[in-house]
């Protein structure tokens, strides 16, 4: 590419199909970059596809009105379901095969998994690594399932030690991961920093009390549920990290607690029992186990599985549900908690990820990891909604607004690139007129 009025090139490596996106925080992060990064950047996405004929061929794509170059490395029919060989490993091997015969030229290279960076040392440019989970908990955690590295944690950390020094910046949405990386790799500690996870305020926002009541009434009718039923929402992959079976067990405990409350003489308590229903948005390898647990606990009438939904439909659920819940074993931040809070919906979460660090007493509760403790916190929020007003929920999310975070980071990268280019290259006037936040 000629240096005459050229744009900086940002290449993103991740197993994302932009035309058939799966549910997940990394996928959403990349979509927000495409939407809100300065238009001065020419973006390339090296991902996956459902179309076999498209593999290995660059094409022009468009998402959120943003045009970008797209290179699918392999065909994946459904990335929500994990195969015998993890998609990350298949993607890494496909990247190696492509780079042995072809060159990818870029000013910035962005990775969202450590494995594909095995072949990144030959790439010349500024390299960024995003850390989306508390990786040490993810690898060392005691829950069954999860990533393949749990079987060989020593191998993961050996690989990480070998690779991290190549990155100019390491960005994590989990403050504990930032601290551990800085301690583990003091030679590059100054390159490791905290980056807020984000939500899109154009999509996630609260409804007025009147419109919320109308929308919720319509949803209850569609679901065949009684008026005034309290709606509990979970959204995420049905994956060991999220512990969806524990989610079902907590729902069973909530029903027990409500039954006990209903049988208590009215004068012995100030709170009243209520009807509740759990909505589950998402799919994944544990869907069969979740359905089995629902049947075992006789919760067919109290739980509805909605499958994966597009973001705009999920946003409508956030706006009308009474509570958003997380039962995760580990997290980075958990974007769903941000999206729910931005819609004015309180959150109950286990002690996982960054959410407990910014959740206030008026926007939700942090609970223990047993089904009984989780259900008790759900009950508190649902019985006393006045303690968790929508305004308190939305207030805590303001610093995490996607446009603000993305424009600030990529505006900084753009300014650095401009400085490095001058005076050897002529910079497009569009770039010099851009102001970072």
TrEMBL record:
<dbReference type="InterPro" id="IPR050194">
    <property type="entry name" value="Glycosyltransferase_grp1"/>
</dbReference>
<dbReference type="Pfam" id="PF00534">
    <property type="entry name" value="Glycos_transf_1"/>
</dbReference>
<feature type="domain" description="Glycosyl transferase family 1">
    <location>
        <begin position="221"/>
        <end position="380"/>
    </location>
</feature>
<protein>
    <submittedName>
        <fullName>Glycosyltransferase</fullName>
    </submittedName>
</protein>
<dbReference type="GO" id="GO:0016757">
    <property type="term" value="F:glycosyltransferase activity"/>
</dbReference>
<dbReference type="InterPro" id="IPR001296">
    <property type="entry name" value="Glyco_trans_1"/>
</dbReference>
<keyword id="KW-0808">Transferase</keyword>
